[in-house]
Q: What sequence folds into this?
């Protein structure tokens, strides 16, 4: 995962390297929408990464799309890139046209009501990434069917919120007509919680890779007591553990991305990966700050763009405990005699 | 950090077919083994079981057919090993011969040595112990003092090996000794020998484990004559021969499955409807194991592709040992237990075994501190 596997990933990495510098991160951190950066990403085609080429997209595989998510984490890209990629995937899955602008996914807190005059989509979806800036795509079920609804930006009433990393996480209240051309029946369960959890897992692995590199570089450069921090055995040992956790996160990210295809997801693999990486996230952030000393917690130094995202992302789309419980219940149901065979199928 | 890349593993169909075959065999062969016995994993010694694996072509399965092997891939062998360990099979008798010395003989040995040893190891009839540690050489292998002095037609060995697992029930030792005491390089001047344990002058004394079990030994060499053909590989190249095998030793399923029996015991206790805390504890350990297994399989795939994953192997071993040590402690807190040796309750008896053996998990095969030092060096910190 740490190396781009094809030309699109390669070009994406170059674009992020050139464009996603401290200025963009600082301005997003202060609450601005990085419109110019978004326009460049859109011109490059990232929002349409998962849409087939004949529908105007990049036609990437799910695996490659996860490569982009990894880069988004590695550069702390302060825009709803992965959310929009997935929203467009969902739209085309349901037979609706993909859209260019930033989008968010709504799949919690909504329901279908059926008053005279036709079906309506109602409810409030909490903690929507960049809800204030995005056109929502909702997935909702009633007693019989599930639907995908493409909404306009103006159709949601926004209550603004932010996560620990100052990324917008808004509550969107919706009351929208479901009788128009913007609604389609979705024949398969798109498993959005799993897909979003897998994306966050991969983003965390990307952020951890950056944190690992920053911490090692800092330890080699910073001198105390007349020698670089890297020469102290205590520092070497804690950075070795940090490197292990960065590595295990990259392997878990491989697991998560391998567990997602266009047609299905493997829940236990995603659960294991997301929860394991979420657990490592706290350790990685703590060690990185410990090695960096005071400069690491100053606003001007860039470490916090990554550590604060880890502290946020580990709780999004299922924290460790909720996924661990889900795995544990599945294993308990299978019973002790099937424990090993279940594990080898993850 | 690119030194630490793990490639994505895959399991060939031959390996998955083998998995089915091995599971069927083990469910019959091990049906009377208690959970606490399963917890012994590669400390469990049963020569008849080892021979039954040999009879199925499951020992040395990657070796050339002319030396008794099956010419199967290392990924097939990986599946066999993880199935054996997860089932708690008693693999100790053949363990070091098959995992460590056999591959060294194949790689560095003479034609005569290959023909003499490999077919017997592959049949499960020839067992090795490993003579590395000494009273004053634990982690610091370069400081060994056992000396094999050149003499007419061979060498004369004097010195003492310590913590030698299974020395008292092995046919041979793979001995690490100095052949040149004047070497400038403290790692230089060492060699490996294949030593018949019946050679006069070898004295084996037990070093009982804290439970009283007898696995470890002290092996004293007093003027032990070894013929020229006991030398393995090149005289003076012992250090590089030994370290070249470390990735195999450090990354396998044996490095994270030692406490698997306790997890089985947890699932037994939990039953089909666990409390949220029980489910979370079980789920967490399963998630940790799943990720480690993926890392370990990745190392196996890199070895098969002739890459050098020595740093990745060190990571697997360190992370694996942390987990192996954590499992019994979590088990006893989440499922209140009264660990006791030979307790009638499966989990209680298993925990009694594992709690006492857990300290060794982060020592054997490279201590935690040594492994982290290797990783730090790989990161460019030293």
A:
């Amino acid at each position: 995962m740490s190396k781009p596997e094809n030309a699109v990933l390669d070009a994406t990495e170059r674009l992020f390297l050139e464009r996603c510098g401290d200025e963009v991160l600082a301005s997003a951190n202060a609450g601005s929408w990085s419109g110019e950066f978004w326009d460049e990403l859109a011109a490059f085609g990232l929002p349409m990464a998962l849409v087939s080429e004949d529908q105007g997209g990049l036609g990437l595989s799910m695996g490659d799309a996860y490569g982009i998510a990894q880069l988004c984490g590695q550069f702390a890209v302060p825009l709803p890139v992965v959310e929009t990629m997935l929203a467009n995937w969902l739209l085309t899955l349901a037979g609706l046209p993909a859209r260019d602008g930033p989008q968010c996914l709504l799949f919690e807190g909504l329901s279908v009501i059926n008053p005279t005059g036709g079906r309506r989509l109602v409810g409030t979806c909490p903690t929507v990434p960049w809800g204030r800036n995005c056109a929502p795509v909702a997935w909702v079920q009633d007693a019989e069917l599930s639907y995908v609804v493409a909404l306009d930006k103006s159709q949601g009433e926004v209550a603004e919120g932010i996560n620990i990393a100052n990324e917008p996480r808004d509550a969107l209240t919706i009351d929208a007509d479901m009788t128009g051309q913007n609604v389609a029946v979705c024949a398969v369960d798109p498993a959005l919680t799993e897909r979003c959890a897998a994306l966050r897992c991969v983003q965390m692995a990307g952020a951890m890779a950056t944190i690992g590199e920053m911490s090692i570089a800092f330890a080699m450069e910073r001198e105390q007591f007349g020698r670089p921090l890297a020469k102290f055995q205590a520092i070497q040992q804690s950075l070795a553990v940090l490197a292990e956790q960065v590595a295990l996160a990259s392997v878990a990210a491989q697991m998560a991305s391998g567990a997602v295809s266009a047609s299905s997801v493997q829940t236990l693999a995603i659960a294991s990966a997301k929860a394991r990486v979420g657990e490592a996230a706290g350790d990685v952030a703590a060690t990185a700050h410990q090695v960096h000393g005071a400069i690491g917690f100053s606003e001007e130094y860039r470490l916090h763009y990554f550590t604060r995202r880890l502290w946020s992302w580990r709780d999004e789309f299922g924290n460790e405990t909720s996924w661990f419980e889900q795995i544990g219940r599945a294993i308990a149901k299978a019973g002790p005699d099937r424990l090993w065979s279940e594990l080898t199928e993850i | 950090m690119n030194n630490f890349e793990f490639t994505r593993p895959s399991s060939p169909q031959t390996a998955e077919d083998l998995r089915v075959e091995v599971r069927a065999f083990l469910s019959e062969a091990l049906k009377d083994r208690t959970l606490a016995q399963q917890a012994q994993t590669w400390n469990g010694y049963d020569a008849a079981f080892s021979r039954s694996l040999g009879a199925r072509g499951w020992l040395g399965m990657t070796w050339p057919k002319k030396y008794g092997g099956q010419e199967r891939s290392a990924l097939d062998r990986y599946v066999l090993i993880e199935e054996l360990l997860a089932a708690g099979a008693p693999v100790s008798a053949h363990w070091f011969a098959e995992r460590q010395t056999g591959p060294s003989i194949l790689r560095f040995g003479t034609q005569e040595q290959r023909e003499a040893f490999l077919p017997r190891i592959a049949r499960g009839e020839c067992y090795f112990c490993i003579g590395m540690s000494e009273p004053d050489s634990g982690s610091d292998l370069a400081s060994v003092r056992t000396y094999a002095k050149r003499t007419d037609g061979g060498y004369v060995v004097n010195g003492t090996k310590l913590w030698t697992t299974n020395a008292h029930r092995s046919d041979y030792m793979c001995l690490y000794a100095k052949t040149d005491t004047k070497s400038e390089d403290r790692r230089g001047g060492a060699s490996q020998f294949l030593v018949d344990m019946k050679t006069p002058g070898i004295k084996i004394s037990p070093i009982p484990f804290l439970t009283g079990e007898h696995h470890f030994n002290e092996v004293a060499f007093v003027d032990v004559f070894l013929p020229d053909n006991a030398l393995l590989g090149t005289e003076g190249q012992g250090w590089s021969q030994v370290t070249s095998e470390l990735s195999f030793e450090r990354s396998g399923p044996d490095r994270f499955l030692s406490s698997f029996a306790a997890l089985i015991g947890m699932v037994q206790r939990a039953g089909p409807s666990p409390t949220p805390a029980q489910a979370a504890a079980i789920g967490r350990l399963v998630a940790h194991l799943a990720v480690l297994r993926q890392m370990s399989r990745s190392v196996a795939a890199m070895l098969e592709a002739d890459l050098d994953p020595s740093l990745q192997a060190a990571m697997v071993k360190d992370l694996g040992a942390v987990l192996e040590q954590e499992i019994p402690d979590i088990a006893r807190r989440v499922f209140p237990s009264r660990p006791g040796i030979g307790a009638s309750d499966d989990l209680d008896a298993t925990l009694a075994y594992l709690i006492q053996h857990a300290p060794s998990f982060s020592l054997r095969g490279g201590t935690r501190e040594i492994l982290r030092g290797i990783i730090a060096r790989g990161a460019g910190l030293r």
Observations:
- The first helix of chain B runs from residue 13 to 29.
